[in-house]
Amino acid sequence: MKPVFSLCVYCGSRPGNLPAFEACAKAVGQWIGQHQGQLVYGGGNSGLMGMVAAATQEAGGRVVGIIPHALAEKELARNDCDEFHMVDTMHQRKHMMAERADAFLALPGGIGTFEEFFEVWTWRQLGYHNKPIGLLNVDGYYDGLLNFMQSTVKQGFVSDWQMGLIHQSSQLETLLPLLIQEAGLSQGQGLDAI
Ligand code: AMP
Questions:
Q1: CATH number of the domain encompassing residue 147
Q2: What is the largest CA-CA distance in the chain?
Q3: pLDDT at residue 190 above 80?
Q4: Domain count, the chain
Q5: Is residue 123 one of the residues assigned to a domain?
Q6: 192 within a domain of the structure (yes/no)
Q7: Can you tell me which atom of ligand 1 is nearest the CA of 109?
Q8: Parent domain of 165
């Protein structure tokens, strides 16, 4: 069956230190699977990345993994994705992930997650795509970043409308339906019905 939506998830290649991070990664995967969705992600089995992918598949969702050759060993390439792509460069990976997504979601993560999140945000404000972007602020992980981002508006380097391109919430039950709705997709219909 064709997935109802395709959500690109950026998150840590490590699990982080709080049980809430692992719980959130699993809950996001379950939500995707329970809503007949597709996960697009970095194709690894390490950290939160592997947890989201496993939970998606366990809940009946489809998983597309995209990983550069050079990282296959380090990030424990998950060959049992429903669709698995080994690409040559990080740029190809990120481009393909963005192409295959209807919406983007960042969970707690490290430098790679930050870079991916900021990249799709800058692409959006430049008009390269029109896909919704969400930041799941699990247990206040992104409080400091969100405060800083607000301060950049006050300092005159970022506009309110640019900030408005990001949806942020601590609740996945709030954030995920919002992203799917903004992408113009119904949780109850196939893409062909839109
Ligand atoms: P991290 O959040 O640092 O644990 O990384 C999460 C994912 O982002 C990993 O799959 C990294 O390979 C990926 N990633 C994407 N772009 C970059 C980048 N420029 N530097 C480091 N990692 C990146």
A1: 3.40.50.450
A2: 49
A3: no
A4: 1
A5: yes
A6: no
A7: 2
A8: 6-185
Coil, strand, or helix at residue 48?
A: helix
Residue labelled with tokens 């989201």: 52
Q: How many Å apart are CA 72 and CA 82, to the nearest integer?
A: 17
The answer to whether position 193 is within a domain reads no
pTM score, whole prediction: 0.93
Question: Which residue has a Cα nearest atom 20 of ligand 1?
Answer: 112
How many whole angstroms from 91 Cα to the centroid of ligand 1?
11
Ligand 1 nearest atom to the CA of residue 44, by list position: 10
- Is residue 104 a part of any domain in this protein? yes
What is the atom index within ligand 1 of the atom nearest the CA of 43?
10
- The reply to whether ligand 1 has any atom less than 6 angstroms from the CB of 50 is no
* Digit-coded pLDDT (tens) for 171-187: 999 999 999 999 987 54
Q: Report the SS3 class of residue 119.
A: helix
If one residue of 90, 107, 138, 141 were mutated to test the ligand 1 pocket, choosing by the most ligand atoms within 8 A of its CB, it would be: 90
